[in-house]
């Protein structure tokens, strides 16, 4: 078991004290192929706002695999780690969505709109298998159903090897599953200290600045002082509890500030580049 390398590239970067780089992406074969050869540590396949399509997610995971990369790295794990954001808000407690994504082979789940301790507990528990109460690391008590044949095959492990790795990091040091909780409202900020104190196994907290701005009355104004103040509160709480905090919109214009403020789970959108079109339009007088 000790010869199995770290499979989750996002965890690998964070474990080494580095920043990790991810992005949201649609479940499309073409996108998966492009991302498989990129410099990202991981990708979050988007199921919240684009619709939950488990077949498309499965196909995307397969197209993340690159035979040359596998041979060179000596591991079946994709060089860019696939994870997924589920569509259900925390209050909906839809554990089956996380189960389906994990059973496909995803290495992590992003849970949107987590606002209470109960919702945070349910999120982490959804990523864990059941165990007896007298066993180590019992809490949060797992509720994931046992059906990981596809996941073990995707990870390139035997079933027993998969079980040994299919737990949440950093609670389980060898765990390859990253549970990312999105804090997107003032209730979530108010309850975040208790979440981080009472729910072990949270891999990272990602700030949902869009919904925060909506609640604060300044939608689509990510640099508004009210939004930045709310984000600073989340960062401060995460630092107090030694939990990694993520920024959803890292760009050339804010990277230095984001880095200085202590964000380490960084989402850098792939840009839509129309430079060639703009140059051609200019050259043709349009």
List keywords for this structure.
13% strand, globular, single chain, 9-stranded parallel sheet, alpha/beta, 286 residues
- Sheet with the most strands: spatial strand order: 1-9-8-7-6-5-4-3-2
* Topology as a string of helices (H) and strands (E): HEEHEHHEHEHHHEHEHHEHEH
Beta-strand share of residues: 5-15%
The number of helical runs is: 13
Shape: globular
SS-based structural class? Answer: alpha/beta
**First-last Cα distance:** 62 Å
Query: Can you give the mean pLDDT?
Result: 95
Helix content: 40-55%
Q: What is the number of strand segments?
A: 9
| Biggest sheet features | 9 strands, parallel
Unreliable spans are none
Radius of gyration: 19 Å
Plain-language structure description:
The structure is a single chain. The radius of gyration is 19 Å and the shape is globular. It contains 13 helices and 9 strands. It has helices spanning 9-15, 29-36, 54-63, 67-73, 95-104, 117-126, 149-155, 159-165, 186-198, 209-216, 225-240, 255-261, 275-283, and strands spanning 20-22, 24-25, 42-46, 81-85, 108-111, 178-183, 204-207, 244-247, 265-267. The protein has a 9-stranded parallel beta sheet with strand order 1-9-8-7-6-5-4-3-2. Helix 6 packs across helix 9 (186-198). The protein has 286 residues and is of the alpha/beta class. Helices cover 42% and strands 13% of the residues. Strand 4, helix 5 and strand 5 (108-111) form a beta-alpha-beta unit.
């Amino acid at each position: 078991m000790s010869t199995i390398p770290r499979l989750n590239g996002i965890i690998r970067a964070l474990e080494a004290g580095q920043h990790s780089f991810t992005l949201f992406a649609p479940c499309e074969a073409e996108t998966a192929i492009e991302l498989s050869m990129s410099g990202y540590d991981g990708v979050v396949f988007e199921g919240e706002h684009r619709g939950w399509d488990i077949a498309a997610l499965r196909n995307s995971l397969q197209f993340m695999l690159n035979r040359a990369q596998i041979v060179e790295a000596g591991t079946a794990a994709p060089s860019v780690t696939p994870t997924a954001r589920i569509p259900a808000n925390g209050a909906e407690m839809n554990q089956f969505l996380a189960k389906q994504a994990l059973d496909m082979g995803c290495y992590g789940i992003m849970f949107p709109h987590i606002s209470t301790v109960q919702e945070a507990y349910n999120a982490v528990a959804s990523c864990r298998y059941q165990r007896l109460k007298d066993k180590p690391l019992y809490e949060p008590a797992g509720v994931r159903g046992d059906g990981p044949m596809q996941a073990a095959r995707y990870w390139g492990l035997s079933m027993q090897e998969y079980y040994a790795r299919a737990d949440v990091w950093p609670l389980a040091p060898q765990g390859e599953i990253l549970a990312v909780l999105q804090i997107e409202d003032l209730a979530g900020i108010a309850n975040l200290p208790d979440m981080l104190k009472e729910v072990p196994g949270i891999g990272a907290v990602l700030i949902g600045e869009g919904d925060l701005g909506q609640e604060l009355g300044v939608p689509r104004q990510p640099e508004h002082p009210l939004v930045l103040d709310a984000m600073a509160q989340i960062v401060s709480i995460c630092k107090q509890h030694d939990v990694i905090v993520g920024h959803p919109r890292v760009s050339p214009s804010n990277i230095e500030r984001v880095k200085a403020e202590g964000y380490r789970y960084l989402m850098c959108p792939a840009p839509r580049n129309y430079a060639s079109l703009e140059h051609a339009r200019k050259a043709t007088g349009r």
